[in-house]
Amino acid sequence: MLALSRQLPVYTWIFSLFIFIFSSYAKADHPIQPEPHSSSSSQTVPPKQNTIPHEEDQNLRPKPRPIVPKNTDQTAGSRSPAVLPSTVLGSITKVTGNQTPARGTALSTARETPLMTKIYVFQGKIKSAGDSSITYSSLNQKEFVIVKSDNSGRFKIELPPGEYTIFAETDPGKLYRNSFDGMGNFSTVTIKDGENIFEEIKDNRTADF
Hints:
Structural class: alpha+beta
Shape: rod-shaped
Oligomer: single chain
């Protein structure tokens, strides 16, 4: 064998060595893959899909509407009862002259003059010092509403039901009400829901009786 190899040309021996090295390299990089079974029961399992939806898909999906519970306390068409305001119709006049003349004489000096002035309304009772007038600055509570009488002395006030004390400003900074409740307070007016009442104030401080 050695003698035969010596007789072969050198290039033939080199070519055989190159074929042997190339065959070994090809087997190492490309191993033989086993052939799949031909059985009908074997199926290729597809790769698992990503079950997490994309952010774009979530934005396109319709969002569920919140469920608003129905109010079962009220029947259809029912409304809460409205509080009707009460109306106070009133007048303020200034009384002058002799109000108690002798029998047989005419009341020629008696006068009632309507006043156009401010009308102050306070909630609840107001203490009195025994005088028909009280200064506004001496009051500890703020007025509930202020209106103004017209040139005929008449005024109109809409108030919710409750108890009120009504004054007329006969002098700057002084409130007048010549009516008392007998318990150290000015007299009040109590009005009910939707009730209309008439309130008359007469300033008779300069009148003769």
